[in-house]
Amino acid sequence: MPSNKNFALNLAAAALGMLLLAYASVPLYRLFCQATGYNGTTREAVALPGHVFDREITITFNADVAPGMPWEFAPGEKSVKVKVGAQGITHYVAHNLSDKPVTGRAVYNVVPLTAGAYFVKIACFCFKEQTLAPHARANMPISFYIDPAIMDDPQMKDVKMITLSYTFFQVKSGK
Q1: How would you class 139 by CB atoms within 10 Å of its CB: exposed for 0-12, middle for 13-18, buried for 19 or more?
Q2: Which backbone phi and psi does 164 adopt, to 5 degrees?
């Protein structure tokens, strides 16, 4: 029978282990999603893949703001057609409706969720926080491509449309 001291040490070690696992779970999950495209998470790249296919996919755009965010936010265009491997470029428009500077952070998703692994961003306003002066408007560009690996995935052969969706959340100062 273990002593009370050993039992207490084992219990404290287990509690500490659970706390550390809980703390690390969010960044580990984020890394997993970015690497695999799981749950509609897109990937990032610095250059185009080099080969363009004839297959076109329509990319539609959606925009929302979180409750309490004093911005209007909308896609600059409703959709674009992009060939697999070719660069797509579009933009969103944000307008600060308040009398104060407001900083926001865009959270994005891709639907269908399985397409996230093949939607690759080269440049995006969503990579960092955005601050708009009082009543200011801003064009926020995005450069992206559809990874040619989509051509080898039998589950993606019937995908003709992908929706890129952003929601802007206000960033509170000091957080």
Answers
A1: exposed
A2: -100, 120
The H or E element containing residue 62 is strand 56-65
Question: Degrees (nearest 5) of the Cα angle 137, 141, 146?
Answer: 155
Across the chain, what does the average pLDDT equal? 83
pLDDT digits (tens, 9 = 90+) for 43-89: 555 556 678 999 999 999 999 999 999 999 999 999 999 999 999 99
| Class at the top of the CATH hierarchy for domain 39-170 | mainly beta
Question: How far is C-alpha 71 from the geometric centre of its chain's CA atoms?
Answer: 19
Question: Model's pTM, two decimal places?
Answer: 0.72
- 142 DSSP β-pair partners: 90, 124
Residue reference for tokens 């407001």: 102
CB 116 within 8 Å of CB 30? no
